[in-house]
Design goal:
With about 500 residues, the protein is of the alpha/beta class. It is built from 17 helices and 21 strands. It is globular, with a radius of gyration of 27 Å.
Length: about 500
């Protein structure tokens, strides 16, 4: 009889444990350090980014809620351990992971905070395993959420203080289910009023409202366009929204829209809620069509019918229609260019070791030097403050060591991270200071009341309207927000770079 061979791990394409969203090198490192006696060593990692998307003057920090939930539910299953055994991890390490729960501390920017390059977005302090193995999930979550929220503030007009009614329509073009859901959430925080994604509303509630009407296929199905319009109006008399460009916007769509609205008026003369609410166009010269439609509808006494535009729109196309052609649609559906942040689809956040906690409670700073001093990371357990000027606008951010105290109305010497600035340092006296990193989890326990979606949305809007310099919001050649180091941190970084990069270990 042939020997029976046991397959150690059977692939399961439906399996899903977020704790296993890990680049494999994180497991090889953790296993090695574990076997060398470092399982209880506490590490400090910072997540930050080096460049704003699209070379803008700001970014929006987003994803903290999902990251917090992930850490609170962090665990490994028997299936995970079986696969890791199959991949050569030690039995001692696997036994440790079996009952492992995340008991670290996470400080982060408040979700929705306007943020800038080099300033920590998330600070993790945890035992070796919990610090190393969460890197990929943390970066995936924070990078994507922040990317879409930032793009949404441009598309929705929050950044220009000329808000548009924008619906997120990108689910079908998103890179997978998770991106569609997370992208809808982030887009709403960034100023969108709704999404086309049903699951997003089911996950996050009515603040991420799912909306939609009809597609061209619906109209094509009927023997003629008028029959399709009538069927829809009969089914949804309180929310009639029609698509005009299946055949011909003006020769067919407009004519039939007016006819259906007249029929509703005749059928419900005393109920103004039962009227055509809006009409959408999805092709052609949108600006020209808008002006012709608006004129025709107003002439027909139907100024209450709103006009909606879609078709590969982004902030530039919408602004061009509004500024140069005075075509101001009542609302927009924006899909692929938003959900993928098409003009700059990568938010380059990184996760770097900055300190190791010693047995006496002190912290030993750690530093990756790089061949370029400007790219060298900022070492130590850090904190960040925002300085505000007399108009309560964010003047600059100052990164310092966690044990430093910075107060308003007291002069402080800071060093500019921009090495092209001939002024190496300056003395600043902030009118107001805000400590940017706040505790989310301490020893694995939630210590913050997580704000609602509505509250986070209002928070982003308030910052962009009232607390950010206008020059940072412009699309072309925005002002580069000042990011500085405290004198103590600057000296530490310079000393460590000279020592480490010079080979003096």
């Amino acid at each position: 009889m042939d020997e029976i061979k046991v397959v150690p791990y059977i692939p399961d394409e439906d399996y899903d444990n977020p704790a296993m969203v890990v680049d494999f090198y994180e497991f090889t490192m953790a296993n090695c350090l574990f076997l060398h006696g470092y399982k209880d060593t506490v590490m400090v990692f910072d997540m930050f980014f080096r460049k704003n998307p699209d070379d803008l003057g700001y970014s929006i920090s987003c994803g903290q809620r999902k990251l917090t939930k992930f850490l609170m539910e962090y665990h490994f299953t028997e299936k995970d351990l079986l696969w890791l055994r199959h991949k050569g991890m030690s039995e001692e390490f696997l036994a440790y992971l079996k009952d492992y729960r995340w008991k670290g501390t996470m400080y982060a920017l408040k979700e929705g905070t306007v943020c800038y390059p080099q300033v920590p977005m998330v600070r993790i302090e945890c035992d070796m395993v919990g610090a190393i193995l969460i890197e990929t999930y943390l970066l995936q979550t924070m990078n994507f959420h922040s990317l879409i929220a930032t793009k949404a503030t441009r598309i929705s007009g929050l950044a220009t203080h000329q808000e548009r009614q924008v619906m997120e329509f990108g689910t079908r073009r998103a890179q997978g289910e998770s991106a569609g859901n997370d992208g809808a959430y982030a887009a709403v925080l960034g100023g969108c009023i709704a999404t086309a994604n049903c699951l997003a509303e089911m996950k996050y509630g009515e603040d991420v409202k799912a909306v939609g009407t009809i597609a061209h296929s619906f109209i094509e199905f009927f023997p003629d366009e008028l029959s399709a319009f009538r069927a829809y109006a009969e089914t949804y008399p309180n929310s009639v929204s029609l698509l005009l460009d299946t055949y011909n916007v003006f020769e067919s769509g407009l004519v039939n829209l007016i006819k259906v609205d007249d029929e509703l008026i005749k059928k419900y003369p005393d109920d103004p809620s039962k009227r055509v609410k809006s009409a959408r166009i999805d092709s052609g010269d949108l600006a020209r069509s808008y002006k012709r439609l608006r004129k025709a509808l107003d002439k027909a006494g139907k100024s209450y019918i709103k006009l909606v535009a879609s078709n590969s729109l982004d902030e530039t196309k919408m602004a061009n229609m509004e500024i140069y052609e005075d075509a101001h649609f009542d609302s927009y559906g924006v899909g692929e260019n938003l959900i993928t942040s098409r003009t700059d689809p990568v938010f380059g956040g990184v996760y770097k070791l900055v300190a190791v906690k010693e047995k006496d409670g002190s912290y030993t700073p750690k530093m990756k030097c790089s061949e370029s001093s400007s790219k060298a990371i900022i070492p130590g357990k850090l904190m960040a403050y925002r300085f505000f000027d007399e108009e309560d606008k964010g003047q600059c951010d100052v990164i310092c060591l966690d044990d430093e105290v910075i107060e308003a109305n007291k002069p402080i010497k800071v060093y500019n991270l921009d090495r092209d600035d001939f002024r190496t340092y300056r003395i600043l006296t902030p009118t107001r200071v805000e400590k940017l990193l706040v505790p989310y989890l301490v020893d694995g326990k939630l210590v913050i009341t997580l704000p609602t979606i509505k509250e986070k949305k209002a928070y982003i809007k308030d910052q962009l309207e009232n607390h950010v310099w206008e020059s940072e919001l412009r699309k072309e050649f925005p002002h580069v927000h000042y990011v500085n180091l405290s004198e103590k941190l600057y000296q530490l970084r310079e000393e460590m770079y000279r020592k480490l990069h010079g080979g003096n270990l």
